[in-house]
Amino acid sequence: MSDTTGNPAARPFAVVTGGSNGIGLELARELGERGHDLLIAAEDEQHLRDAAAQLASGGARVETYAGDLGTAEAVEGLHRAIGGRPVDVLCVNAGIGLGGPFAETDLATELQMIDLNVRGAVHLTKLVLRDMTARDSGRILFTSSIAATMPDPFEAVYGATKVFLRWFGEALRNELKDTGITVTVLMPSVTETDFFHRADMDDTRAGQANKDDPAVVAKAGVDALMAGKDKVIPTLKNKVVGAIADVLPDKAAAQIHRGLSEPGSGR
C-alpha cells in the first residue's frame, strides 16, 4: 500500500475498487472533490500510482492498494489496509467482462470474472458492512449495469454477474432500511472506457457505439448515493432503454441485446 499526502485533517473516507481507471477513477475523483479522502484499489500498481497522482492534485489524501480482488487474500489485504478507519463510502466497482459465444469463450477468464465481479464483491462487502453496522453509518455503491435489465447473449456470464450485483444491492438495501446505512446500485450503459476492448468486443455495435462520459456516469452515481436512492441509470436516454427492457418479454429483450453484442454486429 502507498499513499499520497494531502490534508491530514479528519475528512470522510471512501474506498473505491477498480479505482485506477474508467468509471472507478471518476467515482474516486467525484468523491475527492466532495471532500473525501480515498483508498483506491486495483490490480496494476503503475495505473494506481498514476491515478493517485491525478486525484491528489485535487487536495484529497489518496492511498492505494494493489491486488487481484478476485482472490480472498487480496480482499482481506484491502480490508487490513483500511486499518480500522471508519469507511463512510464503499464503491464496489471492480469488474471485468468478456464477449463472444459462450461455447467458445475462455473458461478461465469467465471463472476469473465470477471471482472478481461476484465473489470478491460479496467478500469485501461482508467485511466492510460489519464495520458499518457496528457504528450504524455508511453508504455503499455497487456498479452493476443496464445489462442487468435483460438477458445478455454473447455476454452471458458478464451479464449474469451484473444481475447478481443489482439484486444483491437491492436486497441489502431492504435488509438495512431501518439503519443508518444506505445501498445504491449504479447501472451505466455503454461508457467510454477500456471495457469493450478488454472484453474483445471492438467489432460489436455496442463496442462501436457513441458512449457515455465516465465522469457523467460517476457524478450520477455519487449524486444518487448521497441522496440515498436505491438505483440510478445515468442519462435520460438510458433510463428509457432500461425501463423498456425491464417490461419487455425476456425473449424480446435478449434479441435486442444480441443486436448490440453479437460478434461482427458493428461491421
How does this model look, in words?
One of its GO terms (molecular function) is oxidoreductase activity. It is an enzyme of class 1 (oxidoreductase). Its EC number is 1.3.1.-. Belongs to the short-chain dehydrogenases/reductases (SDR) family. Keywords: Oxidoreductase. Strands 1-4-3-2-5-6-7-8 form an 8-stranded mixed β-sheet, sandwiched between helices. About 2% of the residues have low confidence. The protein has a single domain, classed as 3-Layer(aba) Sandwich (Rossmann fold), CATH 3.40.50. The longest helix is centred in the middle third of the chain and has 29 residues. It has 267 residues and is α/β, with parallel strands linked by helices. The chain is globular. Strand 6, helix 5 and strand 7 form a beta-alpha-beta unit. The protein contains 10 helices and 8 strands.
Q: Which strand order do you get reading across the main beta sheet?
A: 1-4-3-2-5-6-7-8
Largest sheet: 8 strands, mixed
Q: Radius of gyration from the CA trace? A: 18 Å
Beta fraction: 5-15%
Please identify, by name, the CATH architecture: 3-Layer(aba) Sandwich
Overall shape: globular
**What top-tier CATH class fits best?**
Alpha Beta
Give the total of domains.
Answer: 1
Number of helices: 10
Integer average pLDDT: 93
The helix/strand class is alpha/beta
Low-confidence stretches: 4-8
Helix content: 40-55%
| Count of extended strands | 8
Strand/helix succession? EEHEHEHEHEHEHHHEHH
Determine the CATH topology: Rossmann fold
The CATH superfamily appears as NAD(P)-binding Rossmann-like Domain
Alpha-carbon distance between the two ends: 44 Å
